[in-house]
Amino acid sequence: MIDEIIENHRDKMWRRDPEYQVETVTDAELFIELVGMAYALTDMRSTCPSLYIAVCARRDARMPRNVQKDPESSHTWVLKDEILRRGRVFYGKLGNGRATFLAKRLLPAFCTVFGNSNKSKKLSKNALAILEVLYKEWEMASSDLRQAAKIADRKDFSKAIDELQACFKVIPSDVIYTPKFTYIWSLLESRFEKNLLEPITQEQALKEIAKTYLDAVGESKRGDLARITGLSRVDAGIGNHALVNEGYANRLAVGVYRLSSLDNKR
Predict the structure, then answer these.
(1) Of 93, 90, 183, nearest in space to 145 by CA
(2) Class of 111-197 per CATH?
(3) pTM: predicted TM-score of the whole model, two decimal places
(4) Which residues are bridge partners to 158 per DSSP?
(5) d(CA 126, CA 103)
């Protein structure tokens, strides 16, 4: 059971109060800068701030079954498209498959942990083919990119695109609805400054990711950090323990961490 101190903290951080409601794309970008990371279209059932919750501006925000006819869902979708076009924050799928916004300040940490240069596993043949095309063209629509990379199956193309997003190589930089729906794909390095993509130490990166998440939620339960960010349980533990060692967080139980500043209010 989450106590009222944590609920009040999330009301402010997640914009769950009409006073802080996200209405414009500028509001949305400021919200993402505040929380550091946010999902796009999740609701109250997720332990992560989301653009949809911030648009709804209430604790009980729940995604309806028919999102096309829901004004809050539709507005969130419009804002999501505007955000990715403007390119002032990161938007893409993390390794956990969730469409996620990241403040630019977190890119060094996420690139360090999830970037391909940090992985022993090599990219798939299809992912490498897509990269080869984008290094020549810089950006391309889905159907054209699939054709240029000579990937016949759409599912194989989607899997390769997800692979490249998860290792912070490729992002959607625009979305087009007419004459048909398609994303425009670009290299991450074409959108963000080079210094934001340079790795830092693994320990620093894990601590920064853990700190950002705990700042946003106030208190995290066992497995929350790993599930929300895509970190391994071991790496999530390293990040959380670093916060405890610095006195930034208190460990309440196995896997349960709370901001020290909030714990003092109880």
Answers:
(1) 183
(2) mainly alpha
(3) 0.93
(4) none
(5) 29
